[in-house]
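Subject: complex prediction, re-run

Hi both,

The earlier run crashed halfway through, so I resubmitted it with identical inputs.
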Amino acid sequence: MSDFIVKRILNSILVIFLVSSSGFLALSFLPGTAKEAKFGERVYYFENDRASPFSKYWKFIRSFYKDGLGESFVTGRKVVDEIKDAIPYSLRLALFSVLLSLLISLPVSLLCVFKKDNIIDNFILISSVLLSSLPVISLGPLLVSVFSICLGFFPVSGSEDFKSLILPSLTLTFPFSAYLVRILRKSLKEELKKGYIFSLRARGISDGRIVISHVLRNSIFPLLTVVNLRLGSLITGAILTETLFSLPGVGRLLVRSISGRDYNLTFGIIIFSSLTYILLNLISDIAYAILDPRVRYGYKE
Amino acid sequence: MGIKNKKGLKIAGLSLISFVILFSFVLPFFYRVSPLSINLEERLSKPSFSSPFGKDELGRDLLARISYGGRISISVSLAVVLISSIIGTLLGTFSGWIGGVADEVIGRVVEFFLAFPGIIFVLALSLILGQGILNLILALSVANSVEILRIARAQTIKIKNMEFIKSSLLMGSSSFDIIIHHFFPHVFPVIISHSLMSIPNVILSEAGLSFIGAGIIPPIPSWGNIIAEGRYHFFDAIHLTVIPASFLFISVLGFNLIGESLEL
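This time it finished cleanly. Structure:
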């Protein structure tokens, strides 16, 4: 067990190193480099001098060690601060929409499995295919046109209050909960076919108890992976949704930094998002090993 | 289990896709209006008989633009899926079949690619390569081939360890023979169905990139950048976003319906 955790942590560190190095490499080849944008006494990593790549890389590592991710070329603020300011917006959106998706998809997929009614099942399946094919950039404008422009319930954009969070979250929630329903329905049905369900039924245990304390516990794992990935990608920026609704989150910061050729900031966000991603994966792998005995014993074999 | 009538899903999906393809590739022969000609006097005009979808902020015909944009989006996506399936299949089967160090190296590279959330990876790549349709295709292909590589590799390892491969090895068939006659027929169908199912994702990535201005650059229309331009006119011309958004939805839905009907 601890072997597994140590190995996973070392592996993650290696990947982080690779990501940061190749991010530096890639950005140092970009056109329109920092030298053209240089002013004042600011420190830049991506200077367009004729030094050899190795000495540049050494310089990059040294300055990274000395003053972190540096400053944004455009605003002059520390990259870390810029990202720190943006995180709450993305985090709020991510948590709210994922929670909402879980709240919708759990009962719906249980209904799907419980009611052995083909009409309900088919209806849910078809509408989940429909909903999960709704692209963010299609659903967002449609929601805005109905709820903001025709009905006037919510603001079109902005980030002031809770009300302005609703449309962006719904934009993310509809397709995702439909996707969750599809996954959960499938894994519930597969679980219900297994032998132990038959023996539980034979012992006279009610359907409700079987589903809640046996089936759900076993079939929740594929859901955890998906939710975890989703959280990762939303925390690091729901790029399209944030752009569409003008939410000042990490995704919009990334788009802004790219269009403004603010490479320090871009690099910082890439590092931040890969770190978040790797960390979340690490946590979920370890959680798996702790929660699911099958994974734990499978590893020892 | 599930919908008994898989055929209905397939027919619905196919008809949606053929509608979109006819709309993008055949319509220009009959509706001869340039998607690029600017007419500021008619800017933001509502749908009418002469221009069924209305005109955008520069007075360009929306119907022609969506049709042209559809041509770009669909061709880009098909090219991406084709290229990425070739790369993914070759590398995946190679790494699965050979195993050992090569497999380890390819596995690490894949892990590295997966350390980024999807769209950020494509965004970074298209930023590095510079804008332009060919670079966009390249960036999307690399991103898409990672997934196909993983599937091809897993399928290869699964088939490689099956009894019939071992027994034909024992019977003295050459590796070439085994690969052509026994191996490919089992690996290809899986890869092809996964490549087909990745089409909607590629369409979405392309549209998303163009939406934020990192994909296809404005004078050339694509569904993503048409929506992006339209959203500045939510209040005075909502049709400029709703119509292209619906086309994007219809094409993704069509491919997803087919994907659903293929699923066992």
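Residues 33 and 172 of chain B are 65 Å apart (CA to CA).

- K.
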